[in-house]
Specification:
alpha+beta; 772 residues; 5 domains; two-stranded antiparallel ribbon; single chain; twelve-stranded antiparallel beta sheet; rod-shaped; 14 strands
Length: 772
């Protein structure tokens, strides 16, 4: 019968042989007390069967010395320990007793049942000895129990690589993440990276962030990207990592994170990612990031929404190269507030395509310095709608080279206010081609200093020339189209141009300045062809006429020195040749006074502009229309309607009642012309007949009565009898059997004078026909 261990002393147990120890039952080993278990030598422990070791109580296990554990327990014996037995091991037994072989020998179940205290007691060497399967089996609480030293110096990259997502997500603490070295961080799989909590992501050291592989970077969830600190973003992310960020990750960056990026990092953002940035993200970029970070390709990638939401400081920070890189649609998306902050260097950098893309609202918002900075190529590329959007201040700010770069279509598109805003120096810089592009309305709007600045040469290229016209037949100011074939040196430069003209029943105010008995050009009219006393060209006819107001009373009458030198040219045959019989003194027409107090007019007739309107007074006290008319002119236009053939004699109707429409004057009511009584009819008929001598030839020189003389083209100087008779016959055909003119004026003088608001006038008076 076996004796058992119950009666044996420690000394007796220590000398037992392996055969004797093997003879004891498992029940005997269960009965061992702490003193007896400690009496076992390491050699004796080595001979114990696994079943015998497994029979030891937890108290006995806890009583084992570290030497017994380290040198006595075999790996198979240790692997045979039950979870309760293993759990009974003290921290000292584990830390000082277990060797790496024994750690390796532990089963997964045994490792899983180690308490957090026991795990925390493991040395870094012991931790490093844990098999990867055992590491992967650790509970999250056990993972969390590992010290930072165990994490940093104990766990191998292979061990870290087997951590489950649950262990990573819920086990690792932020202090443990901080403890990870770069090699360990790099060993984490993309799945493990994605499992990191937001706190742990923020806990990564900047060096560890910089060590992340691009695959790891791309594995970060958008929330994790947003969790990165500004320090991690600025000091951690490398340019290759920035490049590797997905569009979704880029969009998840917070504004403070974007603002923390270095200019190098900003420059590394892919163009697709730039285009994906939210407007608030773009708005978060600093001016330094924009100016020094964004490449031209990135600027091109900006969307219209992004550009439109840039802060004014950001817009102003763009370099000239960046400005030039903006797509036209992006430039057009800039608000007027943004456009207003563009520097002159940025304006200079605009391409012609960009200039053409500016909206009219943007053009309006340009400051004078910005307009002055526009390159001539950009300015000349502007559409006419853009040109008319320039402010008058902007127009005034243009340099002479800029003005000279404008195309004729742009010149023609200018509003009258813009034309007025052109400085006199720029007016003087206009080329003849540009001057010829001015419309009649534009020419009419030119100020006196502007006309003077044009100079003699450029004045002659205007598309309109102004003389003063007198309504002689009471039907208002009536003109002929430029297409009627009249040519005259209206600008007084010694060169005839195609020009609009008066109708036969009206007259031009003239003064034979060279006393040659004829009107040789615009210099003897009153208009832009007149050279003023100071050598400048007159801006309009009234300015020219005002020089004759010697007593400065605002009217020209007998009290003025040159009143007697003034004449009225009635070009009845519209040949623009002032035959002596066509020149009438003011006295012969009963004209006593010319009013210089002219008012602005917007009337247009047959393409000619009635610019200024006043009146003249006749001896009977009646007032009649007088106007400064801008005749449309063209130096090259071929008349659409040829001049009358030489053999054709103009009829009286062409003189007294012209065919073209009269000037449409805006009035509320227009008086209907009274039917002339018999005395007036007969007087008119007699007046016409008296223009011919007994041979049927037209009278010449001073023998001309107040009625207009009809010159015979083709018979000047030596009229033939037959032509004279034919002229008389044609003239008589203009009256019916009762001596009444067959043509009735279409618009009365009352209508023209309505513009002047005169109180005393005698409308519908034909001065020529009535001889007064």
């Amino acid at each position: 019968m076996a004796i058992g261990f119950s009666g044996m002393t420690s000394a007796q147990i220590a000398v037992l042989t392996s055969q004797q120890l093997g003879a004891f039952s498992t029940a005997d080993y269960v009965a061992l007390n702490t003193e007896q278990i400690r009496a076992f030598t390491t050699a004796q422990f080595l001979t114990l069967k696994t079943a015998q070791v497994a029979a030891l109580t937890t108290t006995s296990i806890a009583a084992l010395t570290t030497n017994q554990i380290n040198s006595g327990l075999t790996t198979s014996q240790l692997a045979a320990l039950k979870t309760a037995q293993l759990a009974s091991l003290t921290t000292d037994q584990i830390q000082l007793g277990l060797n790496t072989s024994q750690i390796i020998a532990l089963t997964t179940a045994q490792v899983q049942n180690l308490t957090t205290t026991q795990l925390g007691a493991l040395t870094t060497t012991q931790v490093g000895a844990l098999e990867t399967a055992d590491v992967a089996a650790l509970k999250t609480s056990q993972i969390a129990a590992l010290t930072t030293d165990q994490i940093q110096s104990g766990l191998s990259t292979a061990q870290l690589a087997v951590l489950t997502t649950a262990q990573v997500a819920s086990g690792l603490t932020s202090s443990q993440v901080i403890a990870l070295n770069t090699a360990q961080v790099q060993s984490l799989s993309s799945t493990q990276i994605a499992a990191l909590s937001l706190t742990n992501v923020a806990a990564l050291e900047t060096a560890d962030v910089a060590a992340l592989k691009t695959s790891q970077i791309q594995a970060l969830k958008t929330a994790q990207v947003a969790a990165l600190t500004t320090a991690q973003v600025q000091q951690g992310l490398t340019t290759s990592q920035i490049v590797s960020l997905t569009t979704g990750q880029i969009q998840s960056l917070l504004t403070n994170q974007l603002g923390a990026l270095t200019t190098t990092q900003v420059g590394a953002i892919e163009t697709a990612d730039i285009a994906a940035l939210k407007t608030v993200q773009v708005a978060a970029l600093t001016t330094t990031q924009i100016q020094q970070g964004l490449s031209t390709d990135q600027v091109v990638a900006l969307t219209t929404a992004q550009v439109a939401n840039l802060a004014t400081s950001q817009v102003a920070s763009l370099t000239s190269v960046q400005i030039a890189a903006l797509e036209t649609r992006d430039l057009a998306s800039l608000t007027t507030v943004q456009v207003a902050v563009l520097t002159t260097d940025q304006i200079v950098a605009l391409t012609t395509e960009q200039a053409q893309a500016l909206t009219t609202a943007q053009v309006v918002s340009l400051s004078t310095s910005q307009v002055a900075a526009l390159q001539t190529a950009d300015l000349s590329s502007l559409k006419t709608t853009q040109v008319v959007s320039l402010t008058t201040a902007g127009i005034a700010a243009l340099s002479s080279s800029q003005i000279q770069s404008l195309k004729t279509s742009q010149i023609a598109a200018l509003t009258t206010k813009q034309v007025i805003a052109i400085t006199t120096s720029n007016i003087a810089a206009l080329t003849t081609v540009q001057v010829s592009a001015f419309t009649t309305r534009q020419v009419e709007s030119l100020t006196n200093p502007q006309v003077a600045a044009l100079g003699t040469t450029n004045v002659s290229y205007l598309n309109a020339g102004t003389p003063i016209v007198l309504d002689l037949n009471g039907n208002g100011i009536s003109t002929q189209s430029i297409n009627n074939g009249v040519k005259f040196d209206v600008f007084g430069v010694g060169k005839d141009v195609n020009t609009g003209w008066i109708s036969g029943g009206d007259g031009l105010l003239v003064m034979d300045r060279n006393h040659d008995g004829s009107v040789s050009g615009g210099g003897e009219l009153f208009g832009v062809g007149t050279t003023l006393a100071n050598g400048d060209r007159a801006g309009n006819g009234y300015l020219a006429l005002a020089e004759l107001d010697s007593n400065s009373d605002g009217v020209i009458n007998a009290n003025d020195a040159n009143f007697a030198d003034l004449m009225v040219w009635v070009d009845g045959n519209s040949d623009a040749v002032s035959a002596a019989p066509e020149l009438h003194s003011l006295t012969s027409l009963g004209i006593t006074q010319l009013d210089l107090n002219a008012q602005k007019s917007t009337l247009e007739d047959n393409g000619n502009m009635v610019g200024l309107v006043s009146s003249y007074t006749t001896a009977d006290g009646a007032q009649h229309a007088m106007a400064d008319v801008w005749f449309a002119t063209n130096q090259t236009t071929t008349p659409a309607v040829p001049a009358p053939a030489a053999a054709t004699l103009p009829t009286l109707t062409d003189v007294v009642t012209p065919a073209p429409l009269t000037v449409p004057v805006p009035v509320q009511t227009v008086q209907t012309p009274e039917t002339p009584d018999l005395r007036t009819q007969v007087s008119s008929l007699v007046d016409v007949m008296s223009t011919f001598d007994s041979s049927g030839r037209p009278l010449a020189g001073d023998s001309l009565p107040d009625a207009p003389l009809l010159e015979q083209p083709g018979a000047r100087g030596a009229p033939a009898l037959v032509d004279g008779l034919a002229g008389m016959v044609d003239a008589l055909k203009q009256f019916d059997a009762n001596g009444q003119s067959l043509h009735v004026p279409k618009l009365t003088a009352a209508a023209s004078l309505t513009t002047l608001e005169t109180k005393h006038r005698k409308p519908d008076v034909d001065i020529l026909a009535n001889g007064k």
